[in-house]
Amino acid sequence: DIATCEAVAARLSTLARADLGSATVAPETRELVAAQLPAMRDALARACTEGAWAPAVRNCMVQARDHAAFQACEQRLTDDQRRALDLAARGVTPSP
User: Fold this and answer.
1) Residues 6+ apart with CB under 8 A from 93
2) Can you give the pLDDT at residue 4?
3) Global confidence as pTM
4) Which letter, b or e, does each residue of 49-77 get, where b requires 16 or more Cβ atoms within 10 Å of its Cβ?
5) In whole angstroms, what is the distance from residue 18 CA to residue 88 CA?
6) The pLDDT of residue 94
7) Which of the residues 10, 69, 81, 93 has an alpha carbon 20 to 30 A from that of 61?
8) What is the pLDDT of residue 66?
9) Rounded to the nearest 10 degrees, what angle do helices 67-74 and 5-22 cross at?
10) Which residue stretches of the chain have pLDDT < 50?
11) What's the number of CA atoms in the CB half-sphere (13 Å) around residue 15?
């Protein structure tokens, strides 16, 4: 099976929640970051879909066991795809 962009975004969200759960940050900070996760998930799904990420990259990301493994998969994206992902992660919507 080939992973969908939605599955990739869901995996990143799961990994981010796990990282956040083990982070030593103030409860208020944890809540603020957690509140941003749905928007980040949606932006990543959009970047993946619009950037036509390769099936092998999507599969790699969905199978990533931790954030480091997910980031290793990101290195397989093209430069343009990585730029779009970076903008999406910061909440910037690229202009067409």
Assistant:
1) 43, 87
2) 97
3) 0.83
4) eebebeeebbbbbbebeeeeebeebbeeb
5) 20
6) 55
7) 93
8) 92
9) 140
10) none
11) 19
Torsion sign over Cα 61, 64, 66, 72 = negative
Q: Are 66 and 15 in contact, with CB atoms under 8 Å apart?
A: yes
The reported pLDDT for the residue numbered 51 is: 94
Query: Would you list the DSSP string of 12-80?
Result: HHHHHHHHHHHS---HHHHHHHHHHHHHHHHHHHHHHHHTT--HHHHHHHHH-SSHHHHHHHHTTS-HH
The residue whose two tokens read 């941003």 is 36
Which phi and psi (to 5°) does residue 90 adopt? Answer: -95, 0
